[in-house]
Design a protein that fits this description.
rod-shaped, 0% strand, mainly alpha
Length: 87
């Protein structure tokens, strides 16, 4: 088992910059942490939601007129409404 020093050296930069110095890391254990780029595009789900919202804004929505009821239909609706049902 290898004995490791407690001293950690932290190096930060673009991958292209780091691989230009292979001798600095040769024979050493390294840990790579990928830091998200703040300039990158938002997650795919967020893009999909934005697209759906944009499509919804473009839709020509016309409100349907409520169906015309007759006297018998009105009586049935009132009867069921009193029983707590909604038609």
């Amino acid at each position: 088992m290898a004995v490791h020093s407690n001293k950690l050296e932290q190096v930060e930069g673009q991958w292209e910059e780091l691989i230009q110095h292979p001798d600095q890391f040769a024979g050493r254990r390294v840990r790579v942490t990928v830091i998200s780029d703040e300039r990158s595009s938002p997650p795919c789900l967020l893009n999909e939601v934005r697209r759906w919202l944009a499509e919804g804004e473009r839709l020509d929505v016309t409100r349907a007129t409520p169906p015309k009821t007759d006297a018998f239909g009105d009586l049935l609706i009132e009867k069921f409404r009193k029983q707590g049902l909604v038609l």
